[in-house]
Amino acid sequence: MSKLTPHKTIWVVSELFFPEETSTAYIMTKISQHLARSRNVHVLAGPASYQDSKIVAQEQVLENIQISRVKVSALDKDKLIQRVRRLLGLSWKLGILLFRKAKKGDDVLLVTNPAPLLILAAVICRMKGLKCYTIVHDVFPENLIAAGLIKPGSLPYKMLRSLFNRAYSRMSVLFVLGRDMQALFEQKLKRFKHKPALHVVENWADIDTIHPMLKQENALIRELDLSRKIVFQFAGNLGRVQGLMELFMIIRSVNNPLLHFVFIGEGAMKNELQQYIREHGLTNITMLSSMPRSKQQEFLNATDIGIVSLQDGMIGLGVPSKSYNILAAGKPILYIGDREGEIGRMVEEAKVGWCFKLQDPAPLQAFLDGLNADSIPTITQMGHTARSLAENQYAKELILDKYSKVFG
Fold first, then answer.
1. What is the pLDDT of residue 21?
2. Centroid of chain to Cα 271
3. 335 phi and psi, to 5 degrees?
């Protein structure tokens, strides 16, 4: 192990962290552990809120990482007004804690959740002489438009865009998740004299814990009695920006008894999707509750093809991290979204799946209706290619090393 830098600390600030199991918590925990091999790392995080995590103290230590947590009211994250109140309170408390604890010359590593913290952290880092690195998982406020929460061209949007763009411009480094996001930030920051360095660092594939397994050996496939079906699976957040209602409408029109669709997860759209299934008597869709990360090997292999979908207007605004573990499981990807997005480009360049647009449903429906038993060898071969891509380009250590090189 490298000798730790004695005085200079990296302050990792994230709403979610270990022992939470959401994507953001997992990613920020692994990055922190990797950086802690050679640097002092202190994490500032919010309380457990998404899972029933067993956090019993305000201060914890995880593999040489000090963790400090702030308390906020337990509000309903699926109710917009309560969520905004919670994020504002959480951002303020994390900002105050960072201001109190960080010393001049320290580094700060943020993630774009909670979003209001970006504005506060930009001011704090400038006041205290801190170098600020930000991992962009979501692009504010543009993602609010895609989610239908704000109108483009409106005064609130213009005000938020000005505030966030200035905050982004004051960062030292922005880690973006794909080439489309990099291009978006080059435009967002064009008018500013000071611009942060932009580094494309993708999310990773957990190739050590997730690997291909035979479908007929999968317990979930047996439980659902799907061994004779071509199974499509969507696993993750059932939210507003995934275009899931449009996808359900397409599935409803599919006339192929060989296909079955499994949706695993929770989110703001889940009740509406379940109601749609009931109203239309859809028997080719199964909806399951979210499963812990420890079950990924099982549920990611309970399919033939993984689904990754994004609503129109999401180019450059987010890169679904689940894509890389679909590759690790040796499954091709059905990508539904803009082809110019990072996942669309990856799928087409590496030939690990198929790309379609939600706003042009006819080609996707024709593709689904055209699948048959003769399609299985092609699906299997694409799965082999997907696993090879995960191993050679997106393995966890390869991606984490990209962060280490930037921090030096």
1. 79
2. 22
3. -100, 125
